[in-house]
């Protein structure tokens, strides 16, 4: 059975079912018939969620948070989780079965500029939402994701671009940019990218995280952890100062305290 996406009702008697290869628009004669079919299709989706495929992608959670999904002019606030190659939409954080999911491979993800950005304002009036648009050759209409903060928008945009394979452009950390350059060069062993400071050994302390993290707070904690580990591995172990060395290890790994 192919993965299907059960989308919102387009009207009282019409709803849409999307698969990776085609989209079906189904219309019933009465609302009772439509509701009956929706219950059956939701039941099938729940059954699908217990298959090995869903269990396989379930553990690969890259991003999660509340997004407003807009399609066909209707909007719905969803708990959204990026599992592997699938962007899954849930009615609440406690739900284990998504009511909708999108296979991100070959989906083009772009950012829509807010009206304020057109005027080049240095500190524009906060816009209600930041918007990402997902375009697919397999789908006749685009999907819009409304995100509350710039920080969340940047993080979602980066991870969705990586998963979809549409490229990160000038996004991400220097390490991630270097990795994508190598991939684009088919990992050419003669590439100068291998000599990048982020890919070679250095005794200097890191000033930025190697990978993109969801929040600034996590970035700060990651750098603190690096400094603790760096200090532990560079301080010479001497018997007279063994207590100090143990203290350094405990700072790096609080569970040892």
Description:
The chain is elongated. It is built from six helices and ten strands, in the order βββααβββββββαααα. The protein has 257 residues and is α+β, with helices and mostly antiparallel strands. A hairpin with a 4-residue loop joins strand 1 (5-9) and strand 2 (14-18). Helix 5 packs antiparallel against helix 6 (242-252). The chain has helices at residues 31-48, 52-58, 150-164, 174-184, 216-234, 242-252, and strands at residues 5-9, 14-18, 23-27, 61-71, 74-83, 86-90, 100-103, 108-112, 130-135, 143-147. The chain is 32% helix and 24% strand. Keywords: Repeat. Residues 1-46, 60-165 form the PH domain. Pfam families: PH.
Summarize the structure.
This is Pleckstrin y domain-containing H member 2. This protein is of the alpha+beta class. It is 32% helix and 24% strand.
Beta-strand segment tally: 10
How large is the share of residues in beta strands?
Answer: 15-25%
Q: Structural class of the secondary structure composition?
A: alpha+beta
Query: Gap between N and C termini, in Å?
Result: 51 Å
* Overall pLDDT score: 77
Order of helices and strands: EEEHHEEEEEEEHHHH
Q: Describe the main β-sheet briefly.
A: 7 strands, antiparallel
Q: Radius of gyration, Cα only, in angstroms? A: 23 Å
Shape designation = elongated
In the predicted model, the low-confidence regions spanning at least 5 consecutive residues are: 117-127
- Number of DSSP helical runs: 6
**What order do the strands of the largest sheet run in, or round the barrel if closed?**
7-6-5-4-10-9-8
Helix content: 25-40%
Protein name: Pleckstrin y domain-containing H member 2
Organism: Desmophyllum pertusum
Keywords: Repeat
Pfam family, one: PH
């Amino acid at each position: 059975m192919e993965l299907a996406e059960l989308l919102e009702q387009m009207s009282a008697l019409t709803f849409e079912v999307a698969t990776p290869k085609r989209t079906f628009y189904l219309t019933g004669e009465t609302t009772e018939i439509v509701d009956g079919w929706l219950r059956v299709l939701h039941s099938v989706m729940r059954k699908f969620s217990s298959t090995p495929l869903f269990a396989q992608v379930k553990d690969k959670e890259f991003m999660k948070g509340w997004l407003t999904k807009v399609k066909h002019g209707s909007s719905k606030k969803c708990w959204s989780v990026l599992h592997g190659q699938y962007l899954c939409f849930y009615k609440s954080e406690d739900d284990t079965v998504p009511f909708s999911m999108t296979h991100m491979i070959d989906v083009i993800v772009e950012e829509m500029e807010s009206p304020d950005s057109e005027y080049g304002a240095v500190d524009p009036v906060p816009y209600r939402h930041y918007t990402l648009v997902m375009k697919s050759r397999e789908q006749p209409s685009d999907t819009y994701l409304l995100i509350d903060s710039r920080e969340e928008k940047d993080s979602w945009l980066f991870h969705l671009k990586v998963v979809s394979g549409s490229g990160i452009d000038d996004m991400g950390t220097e390490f991630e940019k270097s990795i994508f350059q190598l991939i684009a060069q088919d990992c050419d062993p003669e590439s100068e990218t291998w000599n990048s400071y982020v890919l070679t050994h250095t005794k200097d302390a890191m000033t930025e995280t190697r990978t993109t993290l969801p929040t600034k707070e996590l970035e700060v904690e990651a750098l603190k952890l690096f400094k603790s580990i760096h200090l532990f591995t560079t301080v010479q172990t001497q018997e007279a100062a063994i207590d100090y060395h143990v203290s350094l290890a405990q700072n790096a790994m609080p569970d040892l305290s």
